[in-house]
Structures are given as structure tokens and as C-alpha cells.
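B., you asked whether I could sanity-check this one before it goes into the benchmark set. Here's the sequence:
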Amino acid sequence: MRAIQQVEFGGPEVLELVDVPVPQAGDGEVLIRVSRAGMNFADTHQRENSYVQKQQLPLIPGGEVAGVREDTGERVVALTGHGGYAEYAVAPQDRTFPIPDGLDDGAALALLIQGLTAWHLYRTCARLTGGESVLVVSGAGGVGSLAVQLARPLGAGRVIATASSEDKRALCLELGADAAIDGDASDADTLRERILEANEGREVDVVLEMAGGPLFDVALRAMADMGRMVVYGISSREQNEVRTGRLLKRSQSVIGFWLFHYLERPEHLRAPLAELFALAADGSVTAVVGNTYMLSDARRAQEDLVGRRTRGKLLLDPSG
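And here's what the prediction gave me:
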């Protein structure tokens, strides 16, 4: 089968299109004929071996796929961990979920890792309560575009999003944000003022943050007493330090989230995913599916992702 494989860690140039044997499903696993592989920012960290979980070589990247079970013919989405950038992939049976009728593969993939992440950011981590204001960093991205839409159904009041371009900010407004602002943090005081102005002069209650670096620091300064910041990524590659005295003085929380800590508990997956699929079915949430790249263009796809030239959920088509 055709797959993207890397035998060393590094930049996009280490991603090679190769022919490898079709994987074999073991006990408790299923073999899936892949129709689409989902792309995530975490894939770029895996490529460099800078991810939370260390990787082993040779590596076929890709933590999620949509396709057809070879044993039953059922359309499914699945969390694979790795191996998704290929024509066939193996996934644990308990991390494989049927795709409801009427939901296409791209939308189902958008609701898998990114949807589950957005759901848990609100429900499990921030514990959003009715009427609280929310700041969604990178609101036009895969997780961000869903977090903007989920905010209101899950109880938020005012919703503010950051985005790097006018068309991305327009998308955030279309998705339901009350305000969309430029997230450029080169002038920290100016960005903080933009956040407060977008929230009608008030500090924000909940921040969903995945950038790190200067934006993290500004968002923390714009957070209200008893506010909660949930950190689920470091796309800038710049880590931050937080003074405990500040958290104590303002009763604030900074919470880390990594979805893969939740995979061992089925209740953290099936019920939230069922809720997400239901919200998609009734039109409350629309999965924003971005570009679909051929498998052979995986390098360019990751370059576009890191370069912030994309929006929504990115997909790989293994047929080309």
C-alpha cells in the first residue's frame, strides 16, 4: 500500500511517499480502508519528535482516519495514534466509531479529535457556566472553529475569537462569535485592550489557548478573577511560565489538556462524540472542512498548516 513514512525526525522534507505492506489487525483491533486521513497540528510535532508522547522510527504519521472497516463494511472514524497517512490503517476497536448516515467523512473527522477536544475544553476543563464570556484563540482553526460554535450550546455568554487575517475573522463571525480580533501579540498592551473592548470593557472568564508565547501572556492578563485558561497546544513552540502568586491573588486557573489522556475511559469518548454528532445533525454545529490534499502532497499540507495558510479541518486523500 502507499503511505507517508519518515525514517528520521525533522522538517517536512523527512516525509516520504513509500510502498509498505498492509498492516495486520491484532486482537481487539480493526483494519480500515482509509478514505480520508485527518491532519492535526500535533502531526507536525510528531514529525519533529517534540510531541507530548515520544515517537519511534520508522513512523507513518496520522492519528485519525475515516473509511470502511474491512471486516464489516461499516463506515467509521477511528483514532489510530499513528499510521493514518496511508491507504490502510489499524485502529483499536474501542476507538472506532460508526459514522451516522448523512454525515460525510470530512465532517466526521472534524468532530473526532478536534470536536472531542473542544467539548472537553469546555465541559471537563473550564467547566463553563451559564453566561460566562469566552476567548477562543485561533478561532478559524480546526478546534477553534468548533469551539466558537459549541460555546453557545454549552452555555457561554459573549464569545470572542482571535484570527490572523480578515477572511478568518469573517469566518469566526459567521460561526457565531460576537467579536473577532487580530491576535497579533507584538504589542501586548494593544492586544489586551482589543480583547477587553471586544468583551464590552470586561475581562474574559474562560480562555481556550493553543498558541503559547506572547499571546498566552496577554490572554492571561486579560482574564477575570476566577477565570480559567485551558492550554491545549503550543503552536508558537514558545513555552510560558506562570507566577503562582498571580493565580492566588486572582483565584485564576491554568489547566492543561491533552486528549490522549482521556482515551482509556470510554465515557470520555462515546457520549461526547454522540452529542457532537447530534449537534451536527440538527445544524447547531457545522464542521468547517478546509483543503483536501493528495497523500503525495503531505509535505505541502504540513507546511501550509504551520504557515497558517489554512482554516478548518485539513484532510489527506490516500488515492493520489
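One thing to flag: The mean pLDDT is 94. Otherwise nothing jumped out at me.
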